[in-house]
Amino acid sequence: MMRRRLKILEYAISSLWRRRYKNLAIIVVFALTISILGSILLLTQSLRFEATEILKDAPDVVVQRLTAGRQDLVPIELAESIAEIPGVGKVTPRIWGYYFDVISGANYTLMGIDESTRPDMELLEGTLPTAAATCAIGAGVGRSRGVGLGDELILVDSRNVGVAFEVVGLFRSESEILTNDLVVFRDRDLIQFFNFPPGFATDISVQVYNKNEVETVASKIKRDHPETRPITRSEILRTYAAVFNWRSGMSLIVFFAALIAFCILAWDKATGISAEEKREIGILKAVGWETSDVLELKFWEGLVISITSFLIGLIVAFVHVFFFGASFLAPILRGWSVLFPHFRLLPHIDLYQLFVMGFLTVVPYIASTVIPSWKAAITDPEEVIRS
């Protein structure tokens, strides 16, 4: 039995080779479709995994203050009230904001630190700022402004006055997605730069001892301070997932032409087989092949083409995403910022997604190959050969 099937497989491969140019065209179109779909799925999954890894050290709850539905500065004294809630650990007012750099056309994230809020960040060179008029910058900021360790970074403050900061540190990370556009100052320097009123911060980070009580603590903060908006880490993760899913969906719409090309290909196979293939089936039936043998032959032909195309498409997608940084798709899924981080995505493959993609592409193609052949196989061989 096994030898018989191997012989049928051998004949299927030789049959495909006789029509190699036609089959090659099918493989190219099929693989192109798979590579586009695979690139979108691999990139989306890797970005989602990257965001999850970055946010695992984020505060349990971030408390913002709303005024007329917009984020406003929050009084620092609010931190004392939040700290009295049972189950709450460290409560830290944070000073940070965004800065549009006219020179590079990019947005920077400016963050203030002091002795109690010094983040656990590795530096490629130098140290975090401790003296007045000093800063530490991300790699993207250094590239966009052409500055390095020991140079001066000149920014225009809220009073429209240029301020020079000495670069005392350059950030590094497993990927630049975390610190690429970051500039870190002392709290006092950043308060003066943004001209914050005394006793106010951008938001408040809250640590919760029992991670199962994060939602409970957030609801208590909202109940006691209705003007605030507590945001939990899980809500941020859900937002990232929704954004990546939406962008990947938009990308699939953009490349809908590739899906249409594949549908046309499958439809062309399903509507019938060529006269040469019918004649070949008729001859096989005339020399003693059973209908089941013919169907198995066509099954192997469809399986070889579809699996070959699927694997080639996945390899192309993998190389495109993880070796070339998804150069065609990354601007769509990463966002609109001018200052893109130069980072290498870590492979994180969802086997379930690959299985679904394979099921929705390989199975229909095999079916569209076997069904028309079945119609020819049950027809009288003499009639098939004459036609």
Biggest β-sheet: count, sense, barrel? 7 strands, mixed
Query: What general form does the structure show?
Result: elongated
User: Which runs of at least 5 residues are low in confidence (pLDDT < 50)?
Assistant: none
Q: What's the end-to-end separation, in Å?
A: 33 Å
Helix proportion of residues, in percent? 40-55%
Approximately what portion of the residues adopt beta-strand conformation? 15-25%
Helix tally equals 13
How do the SSEs run, as a string of H and E? HHEEEHEEEEEHEEEHEEHEHHHHHHH
Gyration radius from CA atoms, angstroms: 30 Å
Q: In terms of structural class, how would the helical and strand content be classed?
A: alpha+beta
DSSP, total strands: 14
* Average residue-wise pLDDT: 81
How would you describe this protein?
This protein has a domain at 2-54 and 242-386. The model has no long low-confidence stretch (mean pLDDT 81). It is an alpha+beta fold and 387 residues long. It is elongated and about 95 Å long. 53% of the residues lie in helices and 19% in strands. Strands 5, 6, 7, 8, 9, 10 and 11 form a 7-stranded mixed beta sheet that branches. Strands 1, 2, 4, 13 and 14 form a 5-stranded antiparallel beta sheet that branches. Strands 3-12 form a two-stranded antiparallel ribbon. Helix 8 runs parallel beside helix 12. It has helices at 2-18, 20-55, 78-83, 139-145, 187-194, 214-224, 233-254, 256-270, 275-286, 291-322, 330-334, 351-377, 381-386, and strands at residues 61-67, 70-72, 74-75, 88-94, 96-101, 106-113, 123-126, 134-137, 152-156, 162-171, 182-186, 200-201, 203-208, 228-232. It is built from 13 helices and 14 strands.
